[in-house]
Amino acid sequence: MTGSVVICWVRRDLRLADNPALRAAAATGAPVVALFIHDEVVEALGAAPKWRLGLGVAAFATALQAVGSRLILRRGPALTVLRTVVAETGAREVHWGRLYDPSAKARDVAVKAALTADGVAVTSHPGHLLHEPWTVGTGAGGFYRVYTPYWNAVRGRPVPAPLPAPALVAPAVWPASDDLDGWRMGAAMQRGAAVVARHVRVGEAAAAARLADFVAGPVQDYRTARDFPALAATSGLSENLTYGEISPRTVWHAGWRAMQEGRAGAEHFLKELVWREFAYHLLHHTPEIASRNWKPAWDDFPWQGNSAQAEAWRRGRTGVALVDAAMRQMYVTGTMHNRARRVAASYLTTHLLTDWRIGQRWFEECLIDWDPAANAMGWQWVAGSGPDAAPYFRVFNPDGQAEKFDTLAAYRQRFVAELSTTPGSDALAYFDAVPRAWGLRPGDPYPAPVVALAEGRARALAAYGARGAGLGAISSDTGPADRGAAGSGRLQDEPLDPGAETGRT
Ligand code: FAD
Question: Are 350 and 457 in contact (CB under 8 A)?
């Protein structure tokens, strides 16, 4: 098969609308082959994100079919597959939407260089973010290390209006495609898939409906209600944003319109969306945030490795109700409320003194909204080793957090069967979702705390205290409830990062 076909390599942009790569491919006027590759980066995904990505790919294939196009599926190393499809179709152009995490970036740089050397024109496009990370800089020419000045820098920046879905010309002959079922992307989820499937909202139409529902209602009270895990007060869009089923620009403009219309919580919603941007800004400029302490002063901190206590945390069996509810929410729904993420992560890294990377990896395994930038930033922020304007780090008291944010215990009872005489469906679903090998049953007694909170807190304070001033002062549940309020700006305006542009692919 030869002809002037253009390939659009689809990755985390499973949408027709506001997809600059797809639109650029279509704008050539040539037939477009949208190609998804189950490559080394996909292979490395955790169980839940890989399963959820598979659902997204299926939905996008259906959406393309509805407009007379197709999603071609191939498996293998990205460069090998692209070269094969280029050879089969005679394509001279390849387009893709940029990604910013270290493994995707390394792959893309290599693929781009090789295809270009083959004489294929490769163009990468924005679309996963509101602003390319290298386009936002401090007055001194550096990048931002603190959120609030970052927010101030981008809040008034124009965000391009979302692009309409392109009309796609079909090739005369379609290249062969793998069968998605044959990839078994949900294999590692085992019986958990059936449980989490009740909670997912997959695809572009579902994401758009989610956004519309949110701006029509919950956005009004978002600022205050978002902190209460028992309430359905947040957008839930992280699940869709991470696979590109909706573009951040679409979300931004909807939030902006809601703000113009006077919805009280809309500006705060935009601020949260910008936390996602900030995470990518940091990941681009300091890729080590994904794997090493962002603050090197933490490098010799004596984190514990894996332990029976860490395993109890993973299983939602620590005996600390809010922590267990959070961990079970993740098992049952594939997501976790933001406040609960902070409490569960803080408990692991402070009360259990466990290396944040152990928690980071478990979230990477279990979250259907796993995002390489937000997850890394979230874990490092909670552990104290990451970017944070506050001149102290926090030891959250899970019971204090429960009293403040789950006063009536609705969230804890929703997910922890042992706390209720008549457990509901989500609490019971946990026992259907976890591996049978754990041998857990709803009638089991609730475990005693693996560490008494006071003891865990004292141990954490002693460990921090022993490290001296390098780590900063300690705040035991007295820090600002809202990170947005914490930005002192003291750490900003660092020297220009000379590598700022080099990661562009
Ligand atoms: P909303 O409150 O409706 O916010 C709208 C959007 O803003 C979100 O969809 C998300 O894209 C962005 N956002 C909101 N809060 C944050 C934040 N704190 N950091 C970055 N972006 C934010 N988020 C992920 O998307 N994937 C992750 O893997 C992830 N891991 C985390 C790990 C830890 C330890 C912590 C503390 C936070 C993590 N977060 C992660 C951030 C946050 O918890 C989720 O983005 C949020 O709970 C998603 O729910 P929502 O879509 O209803 O958010």
Answer: yes
